[in-house]
Write a structure and sequence with these properties.
Number of strands: 2
Pfam family, one: MIP
Shape: globular
CATH class of one domain: Mainly Alpha
Membrane topology: Multi-pass membrane protein
Organism: Arthrobacter zhaoxinii
Keywords: Cell membrane, Membrane, Transmembrane, Transmembrane helix, Transport
Protein name: Aquaporin
Length: 337
């Protein structure tokens, strides 16, 4: 219940200052912390996913590469998502920026560090394989078997058009699940449990989409993953790499635009609610309420929601003390009504 007192005339008194403790234990994360988290998450994703694809297949392991990618992605989101938003994929970063969830100034640094982390993850595997007396000479063949391709380099000979269509759809779906699971409405009830559920949802979706794509393109969706493997593979992988940038990014932009349009309708609804409250206040005839106290959006409870600078909204948008008012994971203080 709101602690604001509302006089009978309808004018709202100013709410006293309440708990404004920053999230993340009082710490905030700047650009360096966020990009480092993205690099580590990308490293973990490629080291685990490609490692299973190479060593799991050679040893007859029980876990498949798509499942490994999904599980590692979910784990990385839980471990590092509260710092950076848990992208670990250039397509997710671009889609989140288009949707208005991530500041554009973070897009290029995120993508660059995602590439660095992914390349380092595959490079470690390269070094390990080359150090083997019998397998070292076949290292490029091992890497090429995990690279993304189409046409004659598709596992089942799917042409360019089919690969392009599947990658666009998969990129859009993965981005949509990320944006939906990371929305404030999805994390408003119980932050810790909902964040874990969101990471699980994205991880499972990633695993399923990769399973569908393996026969077509060997499972792309993530341009950083495709680039890192192509660097250490045979020449054809770099020649076909363009598709595994264009298609996922296009799908992510489509999903981002859809979510942005949905968010705009919500903002419009809030503005209408604020205008309605202002009109009711004027109608009450209270001289002290002839001016609106604030132009901030008004929540359903009638309280004024804080305006925050959201730079990298993700799975760890924290509700302010369980009230449903959320704060971004970058440590911007919030308040409760």
């Amino acid at each position: 219940m709101s602690s604001e007192s509302t006089p009978l005339s309808g004018a709202r008194a100013a709410a006293p200052a309440r708990d404004r403790t920053p999230v993340n234990g009082g710490y905030t994360y700047g650009l360096v912390g966020r990009t480092v988290a993205e690099a580590i998450g990308s490293f973990l994703l490629l080291f685990g996913g490609i490692g299973i694809a190479i060593f799991g297949n050679s040893t007859g392991g029980g876990i498949t590469s798509p499942l490994a990618f999904g599980l590692v992605l979910a784990g990385a989101m839980v471990a590092f998502g509260y710092i950076s938003g848990g992208h670990f994929n250039p397509a997710i970063t671009l889609g989140s920026a288009v949707a208005g969830r991530t500041a554009w100034k973070l897009v290029l640094p995120y993508i660059l560090t995602q590439l660095v982390g992914a390349v380092l993850g595959v490079a470690i595997l390269w070094v390990v394989i080359t150090g083997h007396d019998q397998l070292g000479e076949q290292v490029r063949e091992f890497m090429s078997a995990t690279a993304n391709g189409y046409g004659e380099h598709s596992a089942t000979m799917f042409p360019l058009a089919s690969a392009l269509l599947m990658e666009v759809i998969a990129g859009a779906l993965l981005t949509a699940v990320f944006l939906g699971a990371a929305s404030r409405r999805a994390t408003a009830q119980s932050h810790r449990s909902s964040a874990a559920k969101g990471a699980f949802a994205v991880g499972v979706t990633y695993a399923v989409l990769l399973t569908v794509l393996v026969p077509v393109t060997n499972g792309g969706i993530n341009p950083a993953r495709s680039t890192a493997v192509a660097i250490f593979s045979e020449g054809w992988a770099l020649e076909q790499l363009w598709l595994f940038w264009v298609a996922p990014l296009l799908g992510a932009v489509i999903a981002g635009l859809i979510f942005r349009s949905v968010d705009m309708t919500i903002d419009s609804h809030r503005s209408d609610a604020a205008s309605s409250v202002e009109e009711d206040t004027h109608a009450a005839g209270d001289e002290t309420a002839t001016k609106p106290a604030s132009t901030k959006p008004v929540s359903a409870a009638g309280s004024t929601a804080p305006v925050v600078d959201e730079e990298a909204r993700g799975f760890f948008d924290k509700p302010a003390n369980g009230t449903g008012t959320t704060r971004p994971e970058d440590g911007t203080p919030g308040s409760r009504p």
